Amino acid sequence: MEKNILIINTIPNGEIFTKLKELLNGTQNNMDWVDASVFNISHCIGCNYCWLKNPGVCTIKDDYEILLKKMVHSDAMWVISETSFGFLSHPAKNIFDRIMPLVTMYLHFQDGEMRHVMRYQNKLDIGIIYSGEGNQEYLERWCKRTAINFGSQSLGVFSEDSIKEAVSCM
Amino acid sequence: MHVVIINGSPRTKKYSNTDKIIQAFGKGMIQSGATYELYSLSDRKEWEDAREAFYTHTRILIALPLYVECIPGLLLEFLETLHKKEENGTEISFILQSGFAEGCQLRCGEEFLKMLPGQLNCRYGGCLVKGDNFGIRIADDNQLEQILTPYEKMGELYGACGTFEFAEAKKFTGPEKFAFPIRILLAFLFKTVAKKKFIEAAKAWGCTQPLDDRPYAE
Ligand SMILES: Cc1cc2nc3c(=O)[nH]c(=O)nc-3n(C[C@H](O)[C@H](O)[C@H](O)COP(=O)(O)O)c2cc1C
C-alpha cells in the first residue's frame, strides 16, 4: 500500500516548500501539501479538554483542525521549520504541542517507559526539514524521542542543504 | 538574593501545576531570606514586564512544564523576543516538571535548557528535574501537600545558594526508569485505578464521550 505523506510548511514565503515540490513534482501522488505559514494556529493552552472533556477534539477553533484531520489519515508527516536556539522555531513547535488530541488520557508502558495510549490506529512517522542554524544532533535526538511518544519513528532531520536526502527518506 | 521567576506554562495561572510548584518553592526561598518576583507567560500582558525584569536582574529562574520533549511553544515564542544580555554575569536556572514519572522522560528537555542560557549570553545555573506532576491539577489537599512539600525544601536550598548545583537537587528527580516489577504493578494500576480516576475526572468536566473516542476516523 502506498504511504500517505503529509508535508506541512511553517516558513512564510519559504523556499524549501517550493523546492521540495519541484523535486517531487509528479513522482508521488499520495502527498498532501499544506502551507500552514498562512494559517492561524495558536499555541496549546494545556486545557486537557482533548483528553477529558471532548476526547480527540481541540477546543481552540482555529486552522489547526485542518492539520489534525489530515494527520489521522497519514503515515508520515514532514514539518518544515525555521530554527531558534538551534531548535525548531515556535510555529513548528506549536504544531507538535497541539497534536495531543491524537493521544488519549490512558497510560501504558511501551519499551519500559510510560506512554499515552494512541487514539487512532495509523502510525504517523515524523521528519523535519529546517532552515537556519539548527543543532543537528539535538534535533535528531528530539525527533526520535517525539516519535516514540506517538508510537512511530523518526524519518530523520535534514537541513535545507540536504533536502535531496530528505526526499530519499520519504 | 533576589530572583526573577518566569512561569513558562501556557496554562492560565489558576490551573497551572507549575504555578503551584513555584508557590511552594517560593515559600522555601523566603525562609532562607531570598526574595522573588513572578511573571506568568500564559498572560501576554506580563511579557513586557518579564522582558524588562530579565534585562534588569542577574538571577533568573524559569519554571516550566515539559511539552512534547522540550519547552512549550509559547515559552519558545517569548524567548525568541529576547536579545542577548549585553553584560556578563546573569545566571539562568530552571525547574523542569512533567507528567510522566521517570527521570529519563525529561532528559531531552533538560538538554535543551543546558544550551539555552549561553545563547542569551548568560550562564547555566542548573535544572531541578522532576516528573509525575500531571496529578497536581486533580489532586486533593493531602496529595497536594505530599507533592509540593519537597519543592518547598528545594526552594530553601536554592534560596541559600542561588543555583541547583547541590546534591539534593540531583537526587530530587527520583528513578530514571522503573524496575520491571514496579512497571508491572503500575501497568495494572493504569488499567484499573487510574483509568477509573480519569473517567471520573472527565465526567466531572461534563464529558459525554468515551475517552478513547475517534471523532476523525472514517
Ligand atoms: C501539549 C502538552 C505536551 C506535554 N508533553 C509532555 C511530555 O512530552 N512528557 C511529559 O512527561 N509530560 C508532558 N506533558 C505534561 C505536562 O508537562 C504536565 O501535565 C505539567 O504538570 C503541566 O504543568 P502546567 O499545569 O503548569 O502547564 C504535556 C502536556 C501538554 C499539555
How many β-strand runs of chain B? 5
Order of helices and strands of chain B: EHEHEHEHEHHH
Uncertain stretches of 5 or more adjacent residues of chain B: none
Strand order in the largest sheet of chain B:
2-1-3-4-5
Radius of gyration of chain B: 18 Å
Distance between the termini of chain A: 14 Å
How would a textbook summarize the main sheet of chain B? 5 strands, parallel
Low-confidence stretches of chain A: none
Q: Tell me roughly what share of residues is in helical segments of chain B.
A: 40-55%
Question: Mean of the pLDDT scores of chain A?
Answer: 95
Report the sheet-strand fraction of chain A.
Answer: 25-35%
Furnish the topology, listing elements before pairings.
The complex is a heterodimer of chains A (170) and B (218).
Chain A: E1 5-9, H1 15-24, E2 31-35, H2 49-52, H3 64-72, E3 76-81, E4 83-84, E5 87-88, H4 90-97, E6 103-110, E7 113-118, E8 125-130, H5 136-149, E9 154-159, H6 163-168
Chain B: E1 2-7, H1 17-31, E2 35-40, H2 47-56, E3 59-65, H3 73-80, E4 91-97, H4 107-119, E5 123-130, H5 141-161, H6 167-171, H7 180-204
Parallel strand pairs in B: 1-2, 1-3, 3-4, 4-5
Bound molecules: flavin mononucleotide.
Describe this structure in words.
The complex is a heterodimer of chains A (170) and B (218). Chain A is of the alpha/beta class. In chain A, 30% of the residues lie in helices and 27% in strands. Chain A contains 6 helices and 9 strands, in the order E-H-E-H-H-E-E-E-H-E-E-E-H-E-H. Chain A is globular. The two termini of chain A are 14 Å apart. With 218 residues, chain B is of the alpha/beta class. Chain B folds into 2 domains: 2-177, 3-Layer(aba) Sandwich (Rossmann fold), CATH 3.40.50.360; 178-218, no CATH class. Chain B has 7 helices and 5 strands, in the order βαβαβαβαβααα. A 5-stranded parallel sheet of chain B has the order 2-1-3-4-5, with helices on both faces. In chain B, helix 1 packs across helix 5. Chain B is globular. Chain B starts with a strand and ends in a 14-residue tail after the last helix. The structure holds flavin mononucleotide. Flavin mononucleotide sits between chains B (9, 11, 16-18, 65-69, 97-100, 105, 131, 133-134) and A (44, 46, 97, 100, 149).
